[in-house]
Every structure is written in structure tokens, then in C-alpha cells.
Amino acid sequence: MSTNEKTTDPSSVPDIPQPAPTTLAPEEIVDQLRAISTRMGEVTPLTAAQRKALRGRIRTPNPILQASINVIGALDNVSQAVGQPADQVRSLQSEANRWTAVEDELRTMLNGVSGANLIRRLRIDVLAAQAYTIGSQLARDPAHAILVPHVEEIKRLKRFSRRKKAAQAPGSPALEQPETEGPGTSGSPKA
Fold first, then answer.
1. Whole-prediction pTM value?
2. Would you say residue 2 has pLDDT above 80?
3. pLDDT at 168
4. Residues 167, 175: contact at Cβ < 8 Å?
């Protein structure tokens, strides 16, 4: 290896933060999360559209909710009309608030896991780039001919990847075509 080659240890690159060490394997954490989910009982998966629609229907600010619950408790006729006593409605509101804390904690945990995995992927990317650069340089020497097919395969995959990205780039000027052109006259993929 020449003196002008840079081989940086990805764990020492200042721009790449390091994920915190874990004591459990990812599979163990998945098993524990599934066990917790099973014990929780009422988990209702909703689509993004369903969540948005339900959030759009919730309009009452907390002070108005409290005052409305007080109306339920003020007169038995109101409690009978809504079908719930004030204590049960307060209990339901308390439960919703407590589950909001769980939701926030899970969101924070997901963000942390996602961030740590992005860091891992970036470290792998740095290592792969270093391996390709070093392998390309060493493959020039006949003594390291075993690296040639590996380096050639990476070059082939990179060309294919660039070509695929260029063909899929939405709205790129190279792929836009006037409406007067017929199909197959530009390099764009056929639908």
C-alpha cells in the first residue's frame, strides 16, 4: 500500500457518530417487543389514512373535555343520555393520557434504533468504499489477481446501479420528453 493511500478506520471518522453498545441481540429485542404487544391486548393497527381521519375528528381541547366530563357528573340524566358515568369517562381519559406516554416512549425508542442503524449502515458504506478502493489498487498487481473478478463485479454493479437510478429519476430533465414524441424515442422506460 502506498503512503498516499488513506485507510481510515470508520469508527474513528469524526463525522460518523457511534451507536451505543447493546446488551441484547436484535432478535431478542424483537421477541420481547412481541411478548409485550401480546400482553397489551388492544393493539389496533391503522393505516396512515385511518390515523389521519381519526385525528381530524378529535377537536375538543383538554379544558373543554374536563368541563364536559363535569357536565356528565353534574346530573344523572346527562350520564344516562351519554351512556357512561363521569367516573368511567375520567378513567378513559386518564388511560388515554397514560397510553400517550407509552406512544411517546415507543416513538423515541424507534427514533433511537433507526438512528443507530443508520450509523451502522454508514460505517458499512465507508468500509465497502475502502475495500473497493484498496482492492482496485491491489488488483493492478498480478500477485493479487484473485481480486480482479471481485473488483470487476463491483464495477459492473455500480454501472447497473447508476443506469437504474438515472432511468428512475422522477422529473429529471434528461428523461422529460415533449408530448409530440412517440414512444421509444427517448431513453425513458416504457410503462
1. 0.61
2. no
3. 75
4. yes
Specify the DSSP element, H or E, that contains 31: helix 26-40
Task: Write out the three cell numbers for 183.
Answer: 414512444
Each residue's pLDDT tens digit, 140-185: 999 999 999 999 999 999 998 888 777 777 665 554 444 444 444 4
Helix (H, G, I), strand (E, B) or coil at 3: coil
- Rounded Cα distance between 101 and 95, Å, is 10
SS3 state at 8 = coil
The answer to whether 187 touches 175, Cβ cutoff 8 Å, is yes
| C-alpha cell belonging to residue 59 | 377537536
C-alpha cell recorded at residue 57 = 375528528
| DSSP, residue by residue, 73-123 | HH-HHHHHHHTS-HHHHHHHHHHHHHHHHHHHHHHHHHHHHHHHHHHHHHH
